[in-house]
Model the fold of this input.
Amino acid sequence: MSLTDYIYKRSALFKLILLISAIFAQNCSNDERLEGFRQPVLLEQKVYETNKKSQKLALGNPKNISSWTHSGGGSSHSLGNIAFSAEGKFSSHSKVKVGPKGSYSEPIVQNNQIFLMTPNGYVVVYNDKGQFLWELSIVPEGSRAKNDIYGGLAINKDKLAVTSSLGELLLISISKRRVDWRYDFKRPFRSAPIFHKGYIFGVTGDDIAVSFDVKGKLRWTKKGPQKNTKVFATVSPAALGNKVLFPFSGGSLVALNAVNGIEEWEINLENSNIGSASASLGDFASDPAVYGSTIFGVGAFGETFSATKSGKVLWRNNIQSSSRLIVSGNSAFYSSNNSLIGRLNAKNGKIVFLKEFTGKRWVKYHGPLLLQNKLLVLATDKNAYWFSPEDGRLLNKEKLGKKISSPPVVVNKRLMFVSEDGMLNILN
Done:
């Protein structure tokens, strides 16, 4: 195992240690405290003032999504207000076994077919009724890896691109149900690939941006900026016109020309949580999202920003999130693993509301999704939470039965995700 791979696999533990240290520092009794100035460590302990003038909500109309081709729906990762079967509730819930227990990448859906990557190294395909269609192993011949394989999927017509922790990028022909080609980088990929302008783009765990044509020719590579403080968040590049936006670990968003890989501009996350355990860390919490020509980026340790397609930063806000921003109308919505749900003014980044809804600290939250004018957050506490997008009020709480294992997707007014027991869940 290389040093890079070792660091990569230990990054989650490193992050956990940081959080435990922060919580321990905060929970010391008064008689154990030392003299001197104290700065809050956890972001949720800060007091945020809402921007009263921006509280009037204006959402875009719900739109039906008929396919989910990439992480975040498409290559730009922009979702908006998604049409759903009902407002603030589920009417049905079906399940089907698709693989072993473990973590799953985000499902991909096209032509009523659901594509999944299993922890034991298979691409499995089901129809939207939960019926098995076919499967294909992505484990290279001679590999001893059998479990805890991770990566991501992207689809473009008859081609399915796959990145994996085994260090490969490969292309599958859907109609022929075979691997067309595979390229071994001998280093793990940390996120799903994207299709853009007829080419395939991805980023490795040690921050190398790559581009292929559909025939398997490596077009170019680009090494990302070298930073000493990074946690290797799992985020994908985003498409924007003739550019591809690469979120490198360490907090650099770099725009590369899609044709030749030449750098056009760079935006760096700023972490102003001076005195906190995470002050020196910078990384993206989720895929950058492009709405129209406006870019939204979310840092894992204390910054969210908006920028133009030319790389000019429009606003920055020192808030922590674990999700991509969902933008609709005049608002941007987000959640954090600190049990916070928030709404920003999309034009200036001012906080409209920021509310804690469970008080649970060791829970991972997926979302929000804006479904039929309501906000939905799925959590590893086995619950689904529905909120008002206007003021963040908790409207409904529903039990999921099992912990969610994959990010959720919504296609044709159906919500889909994989739970920890390897079950594909389909909800209306």
About this structure: The longest strand covers residues 178-184.
